[in-house]
Structures are given as structure tokens and as C-alpha cells.
Amino acid sequence: MQDVLNEATKRIGELVKSNRKKKRWTQSDLADGICSQAMISSIESGRDMPNVFLFYKLCEKLDVTLTSSFLKEILNFETSSNFSE
Which CATH superfamily is domain 2-74 in? Predict the structure, then answer.
């Protein structure tokens, strides 16, 4: 289970960073009105996973829909993953 969480944290960080860079924003630009720049740095580096509310706000600001195929690919886990372990 920890491996799945670590992979999700890493992938979400990559998603945030790549979309932020596409907009040519600094971490501070993205954080403005949502959270601290330090939190963005921590998410992008894979040290922290945003909670659902923060993740939603970041996606909203980055114009990434929660149902987009991009997110489906980023968060594609093996169907054999057992989240109840």
C-alpha cells in the first residue's frame, strides 16, 4: 500500500509541476490565494500529497479537469492494486 501512495504522491507532483511550467508560472504564482509556495514545492518534489480540497484548487487554477484523460493516465494504477491492505 505504501508503494501505491508513494507513486501517487510522485505522479501528482509531476502533474502539478508540468502544468505550472506550461503556464510559465513560478511556484509563488500558482500558490497565490491557495497555499504557500513551500507547499507547492513540497508537492512538486513528491514529499507531500495535497488533500482533496487543495488538489481540486490546484487543478482548477491550472485548468486541469478532474475527469480529463491526462489525469486518468497520470493516476493509472494497476487494477490488481489492493487498497484495503
Answer: lambda repressor-like DNA-binding domains (1.10.260.40)
